[in-house]
Amino acid sequence: MTSGAHGWLLLRHAATAGSTGCFVGCSDRPIEPVDDDELARLVQAVGHVDVVVVTPLRRTKETLDLLVQAGMRPPSRLVIGERLVEQSFGRWEEQAYDLLAAADPAYWRFWDDPAGNEPPGGESYRAVFDRTLAAHRALADSLEGQVLHIGHAGPIRALLAWQAGQDPRDALTRHVAPLSLHRMQGGETVRTSSPGMEVRLHARATCRSSRTSDPGAT
Fold it and tell me: Has residue 152 been placed in a domain?
């Protein structure tokens, strides 16, 4: 990292409302409610940050608002990372997986190479990977202090894979749960006592899952 930043914390936003069973990438949906105890533990894990980087999609800013309401000190600087938005699934946005599987032959061809293939009218994950790294390099050169990026599963996977020397196909095997926290400079995995919530502070996550089991991860 070439900037004066102490490192980046990567936090996936809270779960997206209405995203079960369908593609929700660049669609601008709100977040689901979050338990107060989970927020309190997350605020403690995040600690002090100087800069918060969100995306133009509302679910990232809504997550930041919840953290501040739960006691996190507001950052001295808020940056909107235009190129850190989630993957565009084109005409598949907000479409149910099972309906696409039954009606659209392109759906099955897409899974032959989900990193390299583009959804109809959308972008490939490889393109997401490349633009995410370019955006991170540009921001890392300009931001000072501790940075918290509240973002999306696809770009966060890209940053973690890049740090581990992996490619876009490897990135897609990484599990990035809603409200999971990752540090881009080493650390260990920390689990809270709350079921279903995991705060990750380890760039080389060992938990892996198939992209096809969660194709529209937001």
Answer: yes
